[in-house]
Amino acid sequence: MKRAAWLVMTLVSATTASATVRVFVTPSSSGYGLEDHVNAFVPTASAVDADNNVWNGFDYENYYTGVPGPLRPGAYPPADSPSGTCDDPILIPEGDFAYIWLQFQGEPKLQKIRGLLVEISFCGTGVVPPSVANPGPGQVYSTYYLCNNMSHPLIGTQRWNGTATPPDYPEWHNNPQTMLSVTAYGMVNHAVDVAWNLWKGGTWCMALLGAVTAPADGATYAINITNIGYATGDPPTLAGGVFQFLPEPAGWLLMGLGGLLLRRR
User: Fold this and answer.
1) Per residue in 104-139, is it b (16+ CB within 10 Å) or e — as a string?
2) Of 145, 141, 123, which Cα lies nearest the Cα of 133?
3) What confidence tens digit (pLDDT) does each residue in 128-159 have?
4) Which of 44, 110, 216, 251 could bond 146 through an S-S bridge, CB–CB 3.0 to 4.6 Å?
5) Cis link prior to 176 (omega < 30° from 0)?
6) φ and ψ at 168, to 5 degrees?
7) Dist. CA 6–CA 43, nearest whole Å
8) What does the CA dihedral 223, 198, 136, 138 come to, rounded to 10 degrees?
9) CA 84, CA 45: separation in Å to the nearest integer?
10) Preceding peptide of 167 cis, ω within 30°
């Protein structure tokens, strides 16, 4: 299937809704996220071309060899995890990265998301820092999980459509990031766990969406769903999260000295 074909699907801004879909983050040291944090910035182990031909689609598990894939779920945060605000952000300690989560709140079961546009910006300014592999001050590096298991005979699907070009997978490190499902599985509000799609049912109604890192310079970021596409029904209310990568102690000291010098002038 040509890339142009699945890009025809239009994401719709959420203006009226009966429930909420939100995104938020947790620090990696909290213990929530992938089974193996080493794989946090691996969007997929597969390759996908513009015609949706798939190679090595074993992100969850290689059925033939029994070898686990890189994208396997570990622990999920509590269902009532805070989102943070600009005045009280989720704090990401020095040396940590953050996992990105999506949660259905009050939505009917089996509701399906066919498309998302997720954006990370500076809190309160709307300026979007680009996603770069070696982020400097005021920049982020984000990753979104493809969950590609098209080569697995028992699963045979993927979360999102779209090309995936190894080894760097530039298509899945964007900011803003578009995620679309035309023939893919998308994101479904299941009552049960769907491990291969990094989905936790029950009272959680939550999916592991990706990961993000940034320099520990004290910048405060907001993450939001700016557009969403539902398979059926009205789009939901959208809610986002706010987080801050804590400066290193030496950074705080330099900032304090800088303030003293300014005052002396």
Assistant:
1) beebeeebbbbbbbbbbbbbeeeeebebeeebeeeb
2) 141
3) 999 999 999 999 999 999 999 999 999 999 99
4) 44
5) yes
6) -95, -20
7) 20
8) 10
9) 32
10) yes
Tell me the pTM.
0.89
Q: What is the pLDDT of residues 107-133, one digit of tens each?
A: 999 999 999 999 999 999 889 999 999
Look up tokens 């995890």; give the residue. Answer: 81
Retrieve residue 173's tokens.
């490190």
Quote the CA–CA distance of 193 and 197 in Å, as a whole number: 9
Residue 243, C-beta contacts closer than 8 angstroms, at least 6 positions apart: 25, 84, 89, 90, 91, 92, 98, 220, 221, 223
**Inter-residue contact 195 to 155 (CB < 8 Å):** no
Both tokens of 89, joined, read 């952000």
